[in-house]
Amino acid sequence: MEKRIKELALTGLFSALLIVATVVLRFPVPTFNLYFNLGEAIIYLTALLYGSIPGALIGGVGSALADIIGGYPIWAPITFIIKGLEGYIVGSLANKNKYIAVISGGITMMAGYALAAGLLYGIGAVPIELAGDFVQVTVGAVISLFLHSRLKNISINDEDRF
Length: 162
Hints:
- By secondary structure, the protein is mainly α.
- 76% of the residues lie in helices and 2% in strands.
- Strands 1-2 form a two-stranded antiparallel ribbon.
- Helix 1 packs antiparallel against helix 2 (39-50).
- The radius of gyration is 15 Å and the shape is globular.
- The mean pLDDT is 89.
């Protein structure tokens, strides 16, 4: 029972952190309908610390809620799939190589949003989307890897990963 309570509390905490990092700490890109945010750092950190399922849940649900709250509801279902997959991939690969895990998650996110932007706005939106996403995943990777190196020893141990 205690483990389930801990899991629920951590899921809520990291979901809230993700929403704050995405909605509050976002920086609109002038003349384009996109914004830079720090949500990737939370998705990657969650997945690195707790594994694929929490990474997918927090990445998908938290990011989709951030889109709805932040005024981009059309992106919520797209974000749910892309960010959920991104978190799942990072969490699945985290025990093998955390750098490869984060790079793989970033590539997944960039490809997913490039495809979505191309379908929604036309092929001309793809390079802009890719450029913005590259910066976002790079900053998110640096932050999450830095924090992971400091938090990994105080996180739930491997047999308690949920």
